[in-house]
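Page 47, continued from p. 46.
Same chain as before, 105 aa.
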Amino acid sequence: MEITAQKIVQIASYFSVIAHTKGRLRVRVNPKIQSEVQNVTLEDIESLPSKINGIKNIKINKIIASVTIEYDHLIFPKEIWDDLLNGKNLDEVIKIIEKLQKEIE
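Result:
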């Protein structure tokens, strides 16, 4: 399935920050994501680095329900992640994600 910027915003609403340093974000994933986010697989999420410029790696730990995202802070600044995870300025975040998607298509 193609993950849209809107779907990324929806997925991120189930994340809470464990640790965030420049270039590395680790989040806890709310278990409700399984029943409420339809048609998205772990493979879809793990494939995001190949589809979005600025995301280097995504590691999912199913046992402790966490996701670690390594990213280029020059392309995808920490402030954008903060807005995404706090549900702020989402229209702007969606525009940025869409722009980064188009650059590698």
